[in-house]
Amino acid sequence: MNAQDIEQSLVLIKPDALKNSLTGYVLSTLSEFHTGLRFAGAKIVHVSPMLASEHYAEHRGKFFFPSLIDYIQGRLHYAEEPWKRRVIAIVYQGPNAVGKLRALSGPTDPHKARKEQPGCIRSLGTVETIRDRDGKVLGERMDNLIHASADAEAAEREIKLWFRPSDIPPAMHPYPTETSTSHYYYKDGKLCDTFALGRICVLATGDLGWASDLKALAQHLRGDPAGTSLESVVAKYLINEHQEP
Ligand code: GTP
Ligand code: MG
């Protein structure tokens, strides 16, 4: 297989798509028959605040960031039903995976999607008003049903953020992997190499991790500067471990 054939992209079917029973429609639209893309990985994820804010890190500080985090966590569409707060995370693989999935998703803003690209997935989305606690209008929120990686660099960051190597068949691994030669435990923003009650084992000796994760974990453990935040590495190992209150 050449490099073009193994191009991958992350798709998230967001909580508004689940709530409105559009999952089947999205999966059909993106099916191998229509896109030439294959499933490389898929999982149902209860999105933690850590995973949400790492996924949308580029939007930290913007007025819509808090509502975006609530939205991707399912807090808005399943306010009274926390057990239904999920997204479906899928890795697709195949020629021009990023470009094809972005094109089928359509523009970020559902109004723009309806105007400029009727028929795209996001043309079925909605735009909601964001208000503060006193009811003052802060702006708008775009409930646009689906996420698709913006480019190859974003795809790598996002696939490594949501998926561990063992979630993807070995022959479809898009990025280098390595076997861990240490134990890594996480608790309250800190990493250590010994177990104590409440510390969660992120990777154990002999476990397979993304090579870039193992490098970053070793740097964080030593206290050396690392190119990535600790949270961006550990978030995926905590997926579905806990139900947030
Ligand atoms: P994603 O696939 O969700 O990442 O969307 P995108 O790549 O088309 O857009 P981008 O990454 O720039 O923004 C991520 C999400 O933030 C969008 O899906 C929107 O919900 C929201 N968003 C982005 N830009 C704006 C904006 O200017 N105003 C508002 N209200 N929301 C925005
Ligand atoms: Mg984006």
CATH domain class of the largest domain:
Alpha Beta
CATH superfamily of the largest domain: Nucleoside diphosphate kinase-like domain
- Identify low-pLDDT runs: none
Bound molecules: guanosine-5'-triphosphate, magnesium ion
Major β-sheet, in short?
Answer: 4 strands, antiparallel
- Separation of the first and last Cα atoms: 45 Å
Q: What is the helix content?
A: 25-40%
CATH architecture call of the largest domain: 2-Layer Sandwich
CATH topology of the largest domain: Alpha-Beta Plaits
How are the strands of the biggest sheet laid out side by side?
2-3-1-6
In N-to-C order, the SSE pattern is EHHHEHHEHHEEEHEEEEEHH
- Using the alpha-carbon principal axes, give the shape: globular
Strand portion: 15-25%
Would you report the number of β strands? 11
Structural class: alpha+beta
Question: Any idea how many domains?
Answer: 2
Rg calculated over all Cα atoms: 19 Å
Q: What is the averaged pLDDT score?
A: 94
Q: Can you offer a commentary on this structure?
A:
The chain has 245 residues and is an alpha+beta fold. The protein folds into two domains: 3-172, Alpha-Beta Plaits (2-Layer Sandwich); 177-238, no CATH class. 31% of the residues lie in helices and 22% in strands. It has helices spanning 15-19, 23-29, 32-35, 49-55, 65-72, 97-105, 110-116, 152-162, 211-222, 230-234; strands spanning 8-13, 38-45, 87-93, 126-131, 137-143, 146-148, 177-179, 184-187, 190-192, 200-203, 208-210. Guanosine-5'-triphosphate is lined by residues 59, 64, 68, 108, 139-142, 144, 147-148, 150.
